[in-house]
Amino acid sequence: MSGLPVAVHEFLVAPAVFVIALRHGRAALGARRAVGELLALVAYGWALERVSMSVFASHRYGAGWRVVLLGVPVAVATVWAAVISSALALSARRGVRPAAARALGAALFAVTLDLAIEPVALRRGLWYWTPPGPWLGVPVGNFVGWIVIVASYGVGAERWAGGGPLVSEAARRLAVAAASLTALVGVGLLWTRLELEQAVGRRGGWLFWGGVLLATAALGLRRAAPLEGDTLSGRLAAAPGAGPALVFLVVATAFAAEAAWLGERAVGLVALGSVVALLPLLRVSGTASSGS
């Protein structure tokens, strides 16, 4: 089946979005803090994948990945680090308040992107769901999990603006990540015990897809003064440039191209819908008006 080689995702897309996020983070937070935040998110991304695979046996990765740590491709964790930090910035640029709502907005953006990624990745053999889910082969619980993953981490990360001792900052991020992973496991166990995957089914998956896209588009079109406070998302939002939106654009373009090559109508519709819903995020607002 034609499409981008796994190496393109692993050695081009993942490093590109990480560098974009790092450049923007450096402008917002300084080099030391930016590196620390992104590396913490890489570790968090790897841990949540490993925990999901160990606790729920939810998925496994294809054989095409080259740099893999205990079954998890490092590139996957790298991409999610860039996406989560960028999503926090984009939510703050929409002026979303308070912190919990801002974190939920970031989660909506990230899940909208993941909705385009998952059906393509499954068909291209990047990873496999065990067992496959009812919505285009993807479990709906995966997207619920990503809302928990991004929103819980976002709420915790907002409590500290940084600038403290390196050990103290690292300990705080470790605590945030641990709490977020605990929340993920708790929600996952509840989802499984109540058999919500079967209850939601294919139709519920499409309703979820439509609802998330509508909410993302509405939030992206929101016109409000951007948050520029001394929080993680506030500082990322205040830094000039299109870096956060560019992270989303690069990942979405790669998977939209894959969807076009696949030639499967439903997958193409999903990819197109996500791209359209994310387009308003390309509008750079507030103080973020020049290149990063």
Question: Which SSEs are present, and which pair or pack?
Answer:
Blueprint: H1 6-29, H2 31-56, E1 59-61, E2 68-69, E3 72-73, H3 74-93, H4 99-124, E4 127-129, H5 140-157, H6 166-193, H7 196-220, H8 232-238, H9 243-262, H10 265-278
Antiparallel strand pairs: 1-4, 2-3
Helix pairs in contact: 1-2, 1-3, 1-8, 1-9, 2-3, 2-6, 3-4, 3-8, 3-9, 4-5, 4-7, 4-9, 4-10, 5-6, 7-10, 9-10
Give the gist of this structure.
With 292 residues, the protein is mainly α. Helices cover 71% and strands 3% of the residues.
Instruction: Give the biggest beta sheet.
Output: 2 strands, antiparallel
Structural class call reads mainly alpha
Low-confidence stretches: 285-292
| SSE succession | HHEEEHHEHHHHHH
Could you tell me the strand content as a percent range? under 5%
What fraction, in percent, of the residue positions are helical? over 70%
User: Based on CA inertia axes, which overall geometry fits?
Assistant: globular
Q: Give the tally of β-strands.
A: 4
Radius of gyration: 18 Å
The tally of helices reads: 10
Overall average residue pLDDT: 92
The separation of the N and C termini measures 38 Å
Instruction: Enumerate the strands of the largest sheet in spatial order, edge to edge or round the barrel.
Output: 1-4
